[in-house]
């Protein structure tokens, strides 16, 4: 069935966005729309120009019989700054302060628009990195990891605080909680991570960094490689000390939990880490 160009462009863009970082052949689109490959190439040029103009990603075309098109979603610097400012405005609310200097973020993590921004921001940081797996810890980091995995088209794995019979054999490590200075345990199924895999760790909130440090130790137990660690928000460090020093934060939250309770949110080190 012959398809009009306007319809082709809409469906082609939708398909590429639903299959990021996947090589889609010209033959596939040609047969899908009943159009010549030359027409498909012209359509892809329009899509490529549009994504570049709006700073929403990069469309690469690969020539040859086995070639095609690959869409990589990411933010331009301007769009990333706009998304960061949006997160800062959403978090900058004194009513979010919880005991112990923690910040209430569950409502934001439950919003699809916020999750899309966070997922694409983190995917932007690792756009040119070789990544195999996204890792997070239960429970609040799961929606963030899922969003990142969607934009990077990579699987995500969940580190558990206690073993589940449905996980099968697991590998466990003990780690020191950076906030309460207690020994805790985390576990990961042996089937979820392969030796040599390149892993990106994501989470919702970092205070002392103990959970992130524990996941790093777990990655080492699998003989896998840590590519980087990124969190939605970074809070005040416990006693001014962190157990990790190589983590990227989208926003930084200065929380005062004394007689005067207040929250001051500002951009984290994401912009300087990714774009400078």
From TrEMBL:
<dbReference type="Pfam" id="PF09182">
    <property type="entry name" value="PuR_N"/>
</dbReference>
<dbReference type="InterPro" id="IPR036390">
    <property type="entry name" value="WH_DNA-bd_sf"/>
</dbReference>
<comment type="similarity">
    <text>Belongs to the purine/pyrimidine phosphoribosyltransferase family. PurR subfamily.</text>
</comment>
<dbReference type="InterPro" id="IPR000836">
    <property type="entry name" value="PRTase_dom"/>
</dbReference>
<protein>
    <submittedName>
        <fullName>Pur operon repressor</fullName>
    </submittedName>
</protein>
<dbReference type="Pfam" id="PF00156">
    <property type="entry name" value="Pribosyltran"/>
</dbReference>
<keyword id="KW-0238">DNA-binding</keyword>
<feature type="domain" description="Bacterial purine repressor N-terminal">
    <location>
        <begin position="4"/>
        <end position="70"/>
    </location>
</feature>
<feature type="domain" description="Phosphoribosyltransferase">
    <location>
        <begin position="112"/>
        <end position="242"/>
    </location>
</feature>
<comment type="subunit">
    <text>Homodimer.</text>
</comment>
<keyword id="KW-0805">Transcription regulation</keyword>
<dbReference type="InterPro" id="IPR036388">
    <property type="entry name" value="WH-like_DNA-bd_sf"/>
</dbReference>
<dbReference type="InterPro" id="IPR029057">
    <property type="entry name" value="PRTase-like"/>
</dbReference>
<keyword id="KW-0804">Transcription</keyword>
<dbReference type="InterPro" id="IPR050118">
    <property type="entry name" value="Pur/Pyrimidine_PRTase"/>
</dbReference>
<dbReference type="InterPro" id="IPR010078">
    <property type="entry name" value="PurR_Bsub"/>
</dbReference>
<dbReference type="InterPro" id="IPR015265">
    <property type="entry name" value="PuR_N"/>
</dbReference>
């Amino acid at each position: 069935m012959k398809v009009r160009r306007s319809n082709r462009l809409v469906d082609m863009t939708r398909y590429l966005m639903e299959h990021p970082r996947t090589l889609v052949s010209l033959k596939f689109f040609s047969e899908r729309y009943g159009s010549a490959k030359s027409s498909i190439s012209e359509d892809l040029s329009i899509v490529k120009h549009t994504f570049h103009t709006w700073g929403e990603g990069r469309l690469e075309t690969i020539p040859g019989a086995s070639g095609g098109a690959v869409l990589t979603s990411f933010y331009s610097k301007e769009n990333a700054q706009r998304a960061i400012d949006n997160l800062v405005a959403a978090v900058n609310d004194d009513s979010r302060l919880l005991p112990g200097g923690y910040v209430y973020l569950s409502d934001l993590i439950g919003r699809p628009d916020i999750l899309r921004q966070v997922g694409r921001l983190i995917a932007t940081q690792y756009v040119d990195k070789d990544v195999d797996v996204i890792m997070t810890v239960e429970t609040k980091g799961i929606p963030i990891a899922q969003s990142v995995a969607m934009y990077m088209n990579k699987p995500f794995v969940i580190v558990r605080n206690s073993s589940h019979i449905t996980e099968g054999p697991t590998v466990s490590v003990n780690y020191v909680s950076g906030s309460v200075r207690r020994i805790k345990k985390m576990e990961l199924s042996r089937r979820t991570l392969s030796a040599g895999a390149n892993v990106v760790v994501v989470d919702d909130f970092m205070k002392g960094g103990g959970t992130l440090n524990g996941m790093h130790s777990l990655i080492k137990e699998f003989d896998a490689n840590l590519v980087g660690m990124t969190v939605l928000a970074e809070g005040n460090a416990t006693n001014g000390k962190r157990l990790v020093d190589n983590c990227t934060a989208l926003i930084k939250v200065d929380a005062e939990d004394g007689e005067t309770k207040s929250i001051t949110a500002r951009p984290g080190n994401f912009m300087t880490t990714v774009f400078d």
